[in-house]
TrEMBL record:
Transmembrane segments: none annotated. This is Xanthine dehydrogenase YagT iron-sulfur-binding subunit. Residues 3-79 form the 2Fe-2S ferredoxin-type domain. Signal peptide: none annotated.
């Protein structure tokens, strides 16, 4: 049986009805068609599903939708300012911070959190903070360069 839950997603209030066991990831992708957030492993191992909840980085595959009552969710779709890309999106393009692109939304959401949470003081610290975001193409050096540029 579905239960009601309301939350703000990318600045828009949403009154929703969800199965109690639906993850935030499935709510975003399947109910709201916000498919920028990716499903890699679906069990907390890859970071492709990273979103922000009240500004904090979270793996949305490990989080139930019903627990988001009153929370503010930001996904990759909510990062740009209208037509203008977020500085981190611009830096990923400039530094070639991706190849196939599948992990990129999660990488960018983590990278924004890395700076906001004060963990971007050195390449080592950035790598440590972002170690839960796996990139099968191995774009790690370029991702670190992008984060360092935005940090300045
Ligand atoms: Fe959530 Fe992999 S899909 S961590």
């Amino acid at each position: 049986e579905k239960v009601p839950v309301s939350m703000e997603i990318n600045g828009k209030k949403q009154q929703l009805s969800v199965e109690p066991r639906t993850t935030l990831l499935d709510l975003l992708r399947e109910q709201l068609a916000l498919t920028g957030t990716k499903k890699g492993c679906d069990h907390g191992q890859c970071g492709a599903c990273t979103v922000h909840i009240n500004g904090m980085r979270v793996n949305s595959c490990l989080t139930l939708a019903v627990m988001q009552e009153g929370k503010k969710i930001t996904t990759i779709e909510g990062l740009a300012n209208g037509e203008e890309l977020h500085p981190m999106q611009q830096a990923f393009i400039k530094h070639d911070g991706f190849q196939c692109g599948y992990c990129t939304p999660g990488q960018i959401m983590s990278a924004v959190a890395c700076i906001r949470e004060g963990h971007a003081n050195s390449p080592e610290e950035i790598r440590e903070f972002m170690s839960g975001n796996i990139c099968r193409c191995g774009a790690y050096d370029n991702i670190v360069s992008a984060v360092l540029e935005v940090k300045q």
